[in-house]
Write the structure tokens for this entry.
Amino acid sequence: MTTDPDLDSFPLVAKGRKFQDFTVAQEIDHHWGRTLTRADTVAFSTATCAWLPLHLNTEYAHEHGHPDVVVNPMLVLCTVVGLSVEDLSEAGGPFLGIDDCVFHLPVYPGDTLTARSEVISTRTSSTRPGVGIVSWRTEAHNQRGELVAELRRTNLVAMRALPNEKEG
């Protein structure tokens, strides 16, 4: 007979960075990257009801000068943000938005994306004690090192508690 595990016996491990861990001009290389496949773009486009033939029809893509279907740019954006989460916002805190998003080159099935971010601003929140606001400029490159996308994103980030305070 199997019994349920005692979940209380597993220690909680804090993940992610706090506000104080970020400094302007700091550069962060995100993990090993992600190869986007034809299945990824078909599933994403179908799930989001984005029926553009450029993302789903190989012959249409060929007729418009592409060697293959083009990966849905919103999937590229989601992938790039996802690659950066562990390093930038995994500790939580409300996402405040994306600005200045530019797609420089098309991404095709089989391309591997990597991402790198630079801290472009930090400030304490004037209305929320214990948190700061951090903005990053993130670039995505393909396996050939070509810049395919860039964006600026901003999050509220919790501050590290002072020694006499309890982190929540």
About this structure: The chain has four helices and six strands. The beta strands are 27-29, 34-35, 95-103, 112-124, 131-141, 147-158. The two ends are 38 Å apart (CA to CA).
